[in-house]
């Protein structure tokens, strides 16, 4: 089945992971700048321990975006999902626009458009400006006004470039790991902080929808433009028959709790019950639910990497049964387990299983009746970069198996508008630093020029795009190697 000509074949990336130039162009620090400086840690080489490294330069997209866009055009992309940086646009406070930041994104988006690549901006991805965090960040209700002013400015000056937008990326990971633990910044370890942050994020989305509609009326955004939210739900699989109820509870929290507020304008009753148990009666204020109900968004972005095996939280694992330690959550009744038997894992202990992408897409489509887009799907690995060719067969296989599930879902009636893999080039990973490779294009982080080179997965995706999504082959190793050799023969300084 050849996909519609308007189908988006994209790649996704994120400002604080690729951009560099952290204090150039008038920019100041975000919570990620502070976190990587304070928690800097380099474990022994080759281990899949977490590396927290400097993001001061990263892949230096700030200076190399023209080179990167040449590579994207050569690859055949017609979309780039880019998580832009609030701090680059409002560097000092909520009132003063940093025009150098607007100019930078205007240049990037104009260059993308000139190369027939649609910019698909995400307005927020975990990187609260430090000036906002010092005033309470997402725990402070004043952030609603700050965020509304930010998105209104973006729509006014950059809205002309695209008709697909997302408000946020992975609110679940940001709030669970940044407010209920200290794994991510701001590292609050606070149930109250979590509740305030997630509710304020949801209200920010509703306010963004208001500004989006205003921008349409003003002619700054296309009247047909879509605004979505992007969520990283891992569909639950009952580990045993007796775990079905636990799995349903997991999906209620990890699907509905994070999607319903901005797609239906409601919270599942379990959240209200949890707030009452915590004695948090002032989180949801008068008028909040009306704001959510009246300003639902148009589109679901979905970051699918893996499913989640779910058991009851009282299940006692047998010795040697699990790949890694089970994961418990802030609510009781279920936990995530990682069985060894008949389950594949990446070198970073992430499950490899595309089979829940189709059923998950069907569930999202059936419940919300909103178009979908895969915004992230990719393989983090230790790529072997010691030879002339970077032969990441494992990544090509992973992507092929998952894209096949997208096509099946489309054939079954799910309205997918596009697929955007994670990620275009190697970047800083919050869970693995620079040792966890995700890109189709390698970056030599030891080079002063951050030299780019294509991997085998690059030519795999190039061929898939050129075939309109039909050529899913990934195990024709000799052909892919030859394609990579041919690509490298003309990979001159314009692409490095």
TrEMBL record:
PANTHER family: 6-PHOSPHO-BETA-GLUCOSIDASE ASCB-RELATED, GLYCOSYL HYDROLASE
Keyword match rRNA-binding: no
GO cellular component: cytosol
Similarity section: Belongs to the glycosyl hydrolase 1 family.
Entry-linked Pfam families: Glyco_hydro_1 (PF00232)
Keyword Metal-binding belongs to the record: no
Organism: Spiroplasma chrysopicola DF-1
Coiled coil ranges: none
Classification via InterPro entries: GH (IPR017853), Glyco_hydro_1 (IPR001360)
GO BP, sorted A to Z: carbohydrate catabolic process
One Gene Ontology term of the molecular function aspect: beta-glucosidase activity
SUPFAM superfamilies, A to Z: (Trans)glycosidases (SSF51445)
Name of the protein in its database record: Aryl-phospho-beta-d-glucosidase
Keywords assigned by UniProt, alphabetized: Glycosidase, Hydrolase
């Amino acid at each position: 089945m050849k996909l519609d000509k308007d189908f988006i074949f994209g790649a996704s990336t994120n400002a604080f992971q690729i951009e560099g130039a952290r204090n150039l162009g008038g920019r100041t620090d975000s919570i990620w700048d502070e976190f990587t400086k304070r928690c800097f840690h380099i474990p022994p080489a080759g281990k899949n321990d977490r590396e927290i490294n400097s993001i001061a330069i990263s892949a230096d997209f700030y200076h190399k975006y023209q080179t990167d866009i040449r590579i994207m055009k050569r690859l055949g992309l017609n979309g780039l999902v880019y998580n832009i940086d609030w701090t680059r646009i409002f560097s000092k406070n909520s009132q003063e626009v940093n025009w150098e930041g607007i100019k930078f994104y205007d240049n990037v988006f104009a260059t993308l458009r000139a190369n027939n690549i649609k910019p698909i901006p995400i307005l927020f991805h975990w990187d609260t400006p430090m000036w906002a965090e010092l005033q309470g960040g997402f725990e402070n209700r004043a952030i609603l006004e700050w965020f509304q002013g930010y998105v209104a400015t973006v729509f006014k000056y950059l809205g002309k470039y695209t008709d697909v937008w997302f408000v946020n990326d992975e609110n679940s990971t940001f709030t669970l790991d940044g407010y209920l633990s200290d794994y991510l910044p701001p590292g609050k370890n606070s149930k109250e902080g979590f509740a305030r942050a997630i509710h304020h994020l949801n209200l920010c989305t509703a306010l963004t929808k208001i500004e989006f509609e205003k921008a349409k009326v003003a002619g700054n955004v296309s009247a047909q433009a879509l605004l979505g939210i992007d969520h990283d739900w891992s569909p639950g699989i009952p580990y045993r028959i007796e775990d079905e109820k636990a799995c349903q509870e997991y999906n209620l929290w990890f699907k509905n709790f994070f999607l319903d507020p901005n797609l239906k304008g409601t919270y599942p009753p379990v959240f209200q019950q949890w707030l009452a148990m915590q004695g948090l009666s002032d989180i949801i204020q008068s008028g909040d639910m009306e704001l959510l109900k009246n300003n639902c968004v148009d589109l679901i972005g979905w970051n699918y990497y893996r499913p989640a095996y779910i058991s009851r939280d009282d299940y006692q694992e047998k010795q040697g049964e699990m790949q890694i330690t089970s994961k418990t959550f802030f609510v009781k009744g279920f936990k995530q387990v990682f069985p060894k038997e008949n389950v594949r894992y990446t070198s970073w202990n992430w499950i490899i299983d595309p089979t829940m992408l189709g059923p998950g897409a069907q569930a999202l489509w059936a419940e919300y009746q909103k178009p979908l887009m895969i915004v992230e799907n990719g393989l983090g690995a230790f790529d072997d970069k010691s030879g002339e060719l970077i032969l990441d067969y494992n990544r090509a296989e992973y992507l092929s198996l998952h894209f096949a599930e997208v096509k099946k879902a489309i054939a079954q009636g799910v309205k997918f508008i596009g697929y955007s893999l994670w990620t275009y080039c190697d970047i800083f990973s919050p869970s693995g630093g620079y040792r966890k490779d995700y890109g189709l294009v390698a970056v030599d982080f030891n080079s002063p020029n951050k030299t780019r080179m294509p991997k085998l997965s690059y030519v795999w995706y190039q061929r898939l795009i050129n075939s309109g999504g039909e050529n899913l082959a990934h195990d024709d190793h000799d052909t892919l190697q030859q394609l990579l050799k041919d690509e490298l023969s003309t990979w001159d300084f314009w692409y490095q």
